[in-house]
């Protein structure tokens, strides 16, 4: 066997264990939560000012690449990797036996990884995520532990993945709600996030009212940072996460049905499940309407997401569903990269 074939085999195994398309989702929600301070009512009203937008981009870029943030990304990545492989381990005995059409192949079913190896990888990733979490904060560790609980109860016992409508609730909490909250907590708890927010608001206030800045105003700024939770963005993004789940569960329709699972797609049927996804996406867009009106890129991202869902709904065959999931993953990547390039 040539070196190229060996390398190709290792890369395929890594892809099937890591499942980058699905690992991207919790990481994206973590970053959205971390930067959601800029979508709070206290700051959103200032987005009309060019200097505020440039300053906000500087703060975002600085925080996103700080040591504290990079450590947090690692913890979320490890927790997500653990969750993916719990799912891989359990699905190898059920639904993935019938899912040969995917471009993701269960490495246990294919015989390139043993159940014990995948289980050990999941446990090791979970332990490492908790250890790294303690380097950040105790509250962050609690969020990580909750994530593991939701992951195990969803994929293993009581296997809520196959008990609609709990499957969509559990999946959304695990992949969207908890990462968002973790990101929000990290931003406010980290020295970089809190000091950068204080600096940002102080700079804006000092520019608008140069003769009135005082210690009292600084205290008011600190209060605003702590109390302005972006509820609309939180609810809207979770509704979008639930809409995304309708795509993934519809993709697994045949395999899940063959293994006797009662998922949302099997309970409703493919088209009604995807129609629910479109409705959830529209509800999410309505909830985040003010944020979209202040950011054309945000609006375009939402409309693209909605278009992909409708495109999948019109003809929910396997290839189109899988293409839709990949397009949404690419859409998320393009959105974040464009923000970085605009800053540079």
Index terms:
344 residues, globular, mainly alpha
Globally, the shape reads globular
Number of domains: 1
Q: Say how many strands there are.
A: 0
How many helices does DSSP assign? 18
Largest sheet: none
Taking Cα atoms only, what radius of gyration do you get, to the nearest Å? Answer: 21 Å
List the secondary-structure elements in sequence, H or E: HHHHHHHHHHHHHHHHHH
How much strand content do the residues show? under 5%
Write the layout of secondary structure elements.
Elements: H1 3-18, H2 20-34, H3 41-44, H4 50-64, H5 67-91, H6 107-110, H7 115-134, H8 138-155, H9 166-189, H10 191-208, H11 215-227, H12 231-251, H13 253-258, H14 264-268, H15 270-287, H16 289-293, H17 296-314, H18 318-343
Helix pairs in contact: 2-5, 2-9, 2-18, 4-10, 5-7, 5-8, 5-9, 7-8, 8-9, 9-10, 9-12, 10-11, 12-15, 12-18, 15-17, 17-18
What does this protein look like?
The chain contains 18 helices and no strands. The protein has one domain (22-96, 107-343). The termini are far apart. The chain is an all-alpha fold. It is globular, with a radius of gyration of 21 Å. The model has no long low-confidence stretch (mean pLDDT 79). 79% of the residues lie in helices and 0% in strands.
């Amino acid at each position: 066997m040539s070196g190229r074939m060996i390398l190709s085999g290792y890369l395929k195994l890594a892809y099937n264990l890591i499942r980058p398309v699905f690992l991207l989702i919790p990481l994206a929600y973590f970053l959205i939560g971390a930067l959601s301070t800029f979508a709070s009512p206290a700051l959103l009203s200032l987005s009309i000012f060019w200097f505020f937008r440039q300053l906000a981009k500087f703060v975002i870029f600085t925080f996103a690449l700080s040591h504290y943030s990079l450590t947090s990304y690692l913890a979320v990545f490890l927790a997500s990797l653990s969750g993916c492989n719990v799912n891989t381990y359990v699905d190898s005995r059920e639904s993935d036996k019938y899912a040969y059409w995917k471009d993701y192949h269960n490495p246990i079913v294919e015989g390139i990884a043993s159940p014990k190896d995948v289980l050990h990888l999941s446990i090791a990733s979970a332990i490492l995520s908790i250890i790294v979490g303690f380097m950040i904060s105790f509250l962050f560790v609690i969020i990580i532990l909750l994530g593991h609980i939701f992951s195990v109860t969803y994929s293993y016992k009581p296997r809520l993945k196959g008990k609609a409508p709990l499957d969509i609730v559990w999946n959304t909490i695990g992949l969207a709600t908890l990462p968002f909250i973790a990101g929000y907590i990290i931003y406010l708890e980290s020295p970089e996030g809190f000091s950068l927010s204080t600096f940002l608001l102080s700079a804006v206030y000092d520019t608008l009212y140069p003769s009135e800045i005082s210690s009292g105003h600084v205290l008011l700024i600190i209060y605003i940072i702590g109390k302005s939770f972006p509820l609309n963005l939180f609810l809207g993004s979770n509704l979008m996460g639930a809409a995304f789940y309708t795509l993934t569960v519809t993709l697994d329709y045949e395999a899940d049905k063959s293994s006797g699972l009662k998922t949302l797609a099997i309970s409703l049927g493919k088209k009604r499940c995807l129609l629910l996804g479109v409705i959830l996406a529209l509800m999410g867009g309505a909830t985040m309407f003010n944020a979209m009106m202040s950011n054309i890129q945000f609006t375009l991202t939402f409309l693209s997401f909605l278009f992909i869902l409708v495109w999948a709904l019109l003809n929910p065959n396997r290839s189109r569903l899988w293409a839709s999931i990949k397009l949404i993953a690419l859409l998320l990547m393009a959105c974040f990269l464009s923000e970085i390039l605009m800053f540079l």
